[in-house]
Amino acid sequence: AQSVTQLGSHVSVSEGALVLLRCNYSSSVPPYLFWYVQYPNQGLQLLLKYTTGATLVKGINGFEAEFKKSETSFHLTKPSAHMSDAAEYFCAVSTNTGNQFYFGTGTSLTVIP
Amino acid sequence: DAGVIQSPRHEVTEMGQEVTLRCKPISGHDYLFWYRQTMMRGLELLIYFNNNVPIDDSGMPEDRFSAKMPNASFSTLKIQPSEPRDSAVYFCASSTLAGGPRDTQYFGPGTRLTVL
Lengths: 113, 116
What we know:
Chain A is mainly β. In chain A, a hairpin with a 6-residue loop joins strand 9 (87-95) and strand 10 (102-103). Chain A has strands at residues 3-7, 10-14, 19-26, 31-38, 44-50, 56-58, 64-68, 73-78, 87-95, 102-103, 107-112. The N and C termini of chain A lie far apart (41 Å). Chain B is built from no helices and 11 strands.
């Protein structure tokens, strides 16, 4: 079975500071990993995904994530936070043999001016 | 493409009433998912369809909930009778056959349901 753990339900950073949102997964087979963002009163939007190949994945809005198999992690980073990055972020896992996604509980990012 | 379309965007109803939520997936997508999001429980998968056939409904909370997909471009989620604890945001999402349910899901804007 697969599962996702997001460490920290709330993260606050200053504008211009590094954003680091943590995600650890559990999977007995090679995972597919995703980060989604949800802005207030909107649906989820794909930020980036890892399926195979390069372990450093770049997404929209300057975000990137690195798949680290040895650490079972897929942390999301952005070098410099913008006010517009304030949102809820969800990590998700699936597999190439699975039938569904498993979403984490989400991390709310606040950006302080 | 217009993306996943959901209606209504907001629904306020009284306890005991029937509620029907609607979803139009992205054209050409073969998988359709219904999720529920609450502060307490986060994002929960209720049911998903493949080629209009329900594949996994283990997330449907109880018999008051039912979902149908009569054709490739339309799905409904019905709650009858509704209860205050059903108040949540309900999302519909779709994905392609090529990727299957394990690949990128595209979400609609959601329906915010309030049951008084």
